[in-house]
Design goal:
By secondary structure, the protein is an alpha+beta fold. The protein has helices spanning 18-21, 29-54, 63-77, 86-92, 99-105, 109-132, 158-188, 198-211, 218-240, 245-260, 269-280, 307-311, 338-345, 414-428, 445-452, 498-505, and strands at residues 10-11, 265-266, 282-285, 288-293, 296-302, 319-325, 331-332, 352-358, 364-370, 372-375, 382-388, 393-399, 432-436, 460-465, 471-475, 487-490.
Length: 506
């Protein structure tokens, strides 16, 4: 565990927030554009200022940094080099040393030009998809396709790019066809399936029974795979074209931030909201899991105990057409991205949202739901007892999926939950304790410090060094020891940040 840390920049501003960018309908479009430009300039200026003043690396935001940020920006649009041509990159080269200037000028010509080229390529590839999928693929000819962009350069011509995508489409259909074929074999011969695949076979049987699917012949399997992949890529390209200017500017700002270090990130309001939900393990909303289904927003799960579950009107497979506040005008959610739609469905606890939904039987219904706190149970620490009958021992086991904390409520934190579990397991009388931090990517530094204190009387937990070289030692502030028996801390290569700190302190 290193004793110094790279700074993490979390900036959430009014960028993209309708409440801040709202302009009277009587104003001209130019006025709206002027407001947006003002916000873009403000955000760029603030990001540049904070990076220069507070980032640990103290890099200068100049042409040299812009040169490094330029390829990072392109990666955010075309990481695997399968959209842009060499000629496109050449056309954008004139902006290589100008990113630092464009941050504060609000003249994001690099973003505008890149988006224009990107959309052109997406539309062209989607047209190619329509043409190619008009007939079935032949798998008699041996072909190969390089999917790793690191192992090749950008393509030189439209012909080369189209040939690459033809192979991608063909490979995806073949892969899906093989998957369907394997499932069909298991349905036909369940006894020949391996024991480890019993659950998979049972699931396939259940699905077959539910939908009354017939056993498919080879022609039907090929047709199914063909149709599925065509629809998959159509939806994928449609989604790419739905990116807003806020999404594209986020790529720009984060390309600059990434040059400083991989953990420095700019969060626009929507991402900041998601971050707060992730770090606190709860949100204010209706308690339903949604996903895009073509042009529609479909309900895929109702959270037990949540507002929608208690109201009982909303059901799985319902399609949400409109959302409105209690006395507000309904907002059409058709053709809207799911992350945009949830902004109209979520809201403060105690407020009412009215959802116009289409039921599975085709009927329509307006469902009023009073929003409430929705707790994401999978985020919380949980304890259990492991018994070893031969050795006649009991071991307490606590799984901490992340270092969560609600900064607005001191009662909700992973430390408080682990403390509660430790006390409960001690009462049962365990011979040892396991603290499982595997796949825990970290979270609140405060909890790494406080949770460590549950196992030691006193001592340093971690050192933090600032850009000026000054070191601050975070120590255990709690003289009490909650548990001092045998302890195993489990980590793996996905345990990071706060998990490393706690494990290192132990």
């Amino acid at each position: 565990m290193k004793n110094s840390f790279l700074a993490v920049l979390l900036i959430s501003l009014a960028f993209g927030n309708p409440a801040f960018a709202k302009v009277s309908s009587k104003k001209k479009a130019s006025s709206e554009e002027q407001v947006d430009k003002h916000l873009e300039k403000l955000i760029g200026t603030m990001i540049r200022s904070r990076l220069a003043k507070f980032h640990y690396t103290q890099k200068s935001l100049d042409d040299a940094l812009s040169e490094k940020a330029f390829p990072e920006f392109l990666k955010r649009f075309d990481y695997n080099k399968q959209y842009f041509l060499k000629s496109d990159i050449k056309a954008l080269e004139k902006y290589r040393f100008l990113m630092d200037d464009q941050m504060t000028s609000a003249k994001h010509e690099l973003v505008d030009q890149t988006v224009a080229i990107f959309k052109k390529r997406i539309n062209s590839i989607n047209e190619l998809r329509t043409k190619i999928f008009k007939k079935q693929f032949s798998f008699k000819k041996k072909e190969s396709v390089e999917l790793d962009g690191k192992k090749r350069d950008y393509f030189s011509t439209d012909k080369e790019l189209n040939e690459h995508w033809r192979k991608i489409f063909k490979q995806s259909v073949l892969s899906n066809y093989i998957s369907i074929m394997e499932t069909q074999k298991e349905l036909k011969n369940p006894k020949k399936s391996k024991k480890k695949d019993k659950k998979k076979v049972a699931k396939a049987k259940k699905k077959k029974s539910k939908k009354k699917e017939k056993i498919l012949n080879d022609k039907e399997m090929r047709a199914k795979a063909h149709k599925a992949q065509s629809e998959k890529y159509e939806k994928y390209f449609t989604r790419l074209l739905k990116d807003r200017r806020t999404d594209n500017l986020e790529k720009f700002f984060n390309a600059v931030a990434a040059v400083h270090d991989p953990h420095t990130v700019y969060f626009p309001p929507k991402k900041k909201e998601d971050f707060d939900i992730d770090i606190s393990g709860q949100l204010e909303g209706i308690g339903a899991v949604l996903q895009e289904d073509g042009a529609y927003i479909k309900v895929t799960r109702i959270v037990p105990g949540g507002a929608a579950w208690r109201q009982k009107g909303l059901e799985v497979d319902d399609v949400i057409l409109f959302a409105a506040e209690k006395e507000g005008t309904p907002v059409d959610l058709v053709n809207m991205r799911v992350d945009d739609a949830v902004r109209y469905i979520r809201g403060k606890k105690g407020t009412e949202v009215r959802l116009t939904v289409k039921k599975a039987d085709g009927s329509r219904k307006v469902i009023p739901i009073i929003r409430d706190i929705v707790e994401i149970e999978a985020s919380y620490a949980k304890g259990s007892i492991l018994k070893h009958n031969k050795l006649n021992i009991k071991v307490g086991y606590i799984h901490v999926p992340k270092f969560y904390r609600d900064f607005n409520s001191p009662d909700r934190s992973c430390t408080a939950d682990v403390l509660m579990e430790l006390k409960r397991l001690k009462k049962v009388g365990v011979n040892g304790m396991i603290l499982d931090l595997r796949n825990n990517g970290g979270g609140a530094l405060q909890d790494a410090e406080e949770m460590s204190g549950l196992f030691i009387k006193k001592g340093p937990i971690v050192q933090i060094r600032d850009p000026k070289g000054q070191i601050d030692v975070l120590k255990d502030q709690n003289p009490d020891i909650t548990y001092d028996g045998p302890l195993i801390v489990m980590v793996n290569r996905f345990s990071a940040s706060a998990s490393e700190i706690l494990a290192g302190a132990m």
